[in-house]
Design brief:
about 400 residues, mainly alpha, Growth Hormone, Chain: A, about 0% strand, globular
Length: about 400
């Protein structure tokens, strides 16, 4: 297997994981009606996934560092298919408790997805390409989330939400089989095995700021993962099919914005060095997302709101490549565990936002609840001004590399 093939398989795996992750947010409208669940109760179902997902991030990353991405992801993907099938069998009499348990277990099973991918990218992809590699892998967020609304809406309007969940779990089973058969990984490179600026330490000020920033980004991003479809249908009064179309728009845009953010970040690192190069995309993406989200929440025009929020989501998610590439430079060979720490922060933010957002919306209105999310997005971007990376040979600007070569001669 070549590095490019590995990145493609990691992206496919992440797509399958997101189909299993967001299927309930689309099927939620019919599930709430059948089981008599309120928005707040459905928010707890969403958060149950994130509880299991968040608390298992670090152990999952450590398992990936210890046993490798292939074995860990094969077992994880199989669990996604199993727990999604279990969820589809929820009984009417104890629906809420059953759904909470099933989503918790699914979250535990999905915890290795991105820490294991980080371990694989850190070990097998050259450092100069890690921004774009991470961007491609995490662009699967957009692919899975773009596929889910129309696919699940189409199926559940014809055969019900249970059939829709079962169909959404099929790619996970396929991916599990592929990982089991993919026994040959790419050759490791010395540059990406050795820790760089952080020497594997996870207690530096920059790593703490990176994790806090990613936590705030997760708070904002997960609002769109879980609530955008229901916001459009229940607050902006789109019908189910139009709501499915517009809720797919952010993820369609992010299929471009996430890898593009990684490519731009890699290019800026070559020109300006690690610290400045990795900083530009997150600051611009999170602050720009703040402006668009605030305008979308404020405008009275439903279509303008949907488009502005879609663009805001694309900007907020464009920062993924720089976040993960920066973490890898800090952590080196401990990228699985470090990715688990950082992603745990993101999902703690995500754990809070699906449950808190409808509560805030009920007390202060959806507009103000989204204003709060916009403000947190801006803070997350500005925290990057305090994140610093020591230069290393794979990321220093070209002019500095040439100067060093001349001095050595």
């Amino acid at each position: 297997m070549r590095p490019a093939q590995l990145v493609g398989l990691l992206a496919t795996t992440a797509t399958a994981s997101y189909l299993c992750r967001v299927n309930v947010s689309v099927a939620g409208a019919l599930m709430m009606k059948e089981f008599g669940l309120s928005q707040a109760a459905m928010g707890r179902v969403f958060s149950a996934f994130l509880l299991g997902y968040a608390i298992c991030q670090v152990p999952a990353g450590m398992l990936a560092d210890r046993f490798g991405a292939r074995r860990v992801l094969a077992a994880a993907a199989l669990s996604w298919a199993v727990f999604t099938a279990v969820m589809a069998s929820a009984p009417a009499g104890a629906a809420l408790a059953f759904l909470l348990c099933a989503r918790l277990l699914l979250g535990i099973g999905e915890a290795p997805t991105f820490p294991a991918a980080a371990q694989a990218v850190s070990r097998y992809v050259p450092a100069a390409l890690q921004g774009r590699a991470n961007g491609v892998v995490i662009a699967a967020i957009g692919v899975g989330s773009a596929i889910a609304p129309p696919l699940i809406s189409f199926v559940m309007l014809r055969w019900g939400w249970r059939a829709a969940l079962l169909i959404s779990s099929a790619p996970a089973l396929f991916v599990s089989i592929v990982w089991l058969l993919a026994r040959q990984m790419p050759q490791e490179t010395e540059r990406t095995i050795t820790a760089t600026s952080g020497n594997g330490r996870l207690s530096s000020r920059s790593f703490v700021l990176l994790t806090i920033s990613y936590t705030l980004q997760g708070y904002v991003g997960y609002i769109f993962v879980f609530w955008f479809y229901l916001y459009l249908t229940e607050v902006r009064h789109f019908d189910l099919l139009r709501g499915a179309f517009f809720s797919s728009l952010p993820w369609i845009l992010s299929i471009v914005s996430i890898p593009l953010g990684g490519v731009v970040s890699d290019g800026l690192v070559k020109r300006w060095g690690a610290t400045a190069g990795r900083r530009v995309v997150p600051v611009a993406g999170l602050v720009g997302g703040c402006v668009l989200l605030a305008y979308g929440a404020r405008t009275a025009n439903a279509h303008s709101a949907a488009v502005c929020m879609a663009l805001a989501t694309a900007l907020v998610l464009s920062v993924e490549g720089p976040f993960w590439a920066t973490m890898m430079q800090m952590a080196g060979s401990r990228s699985g565990a470090a990715g688990g720490v950082m992603n745990m922060g993101s999902n703690l933010g995500g754990l809070i936002s699906p449950a808190l957002t409808p509560v805030l919306a009920a007390s202060i209105g959806w507009e103000n609840a989204l204003f709060l999310a916009a403000a947190l997005s801006a803070v997350g971007g500005l925290l990057w001004l305090g994140i610093h990376l020591e230069p290393d040979r794979s990321t220093e600007p070209e002019s500095e590399s040439r100067s060093a070569l001349r001095r050595s001669e």
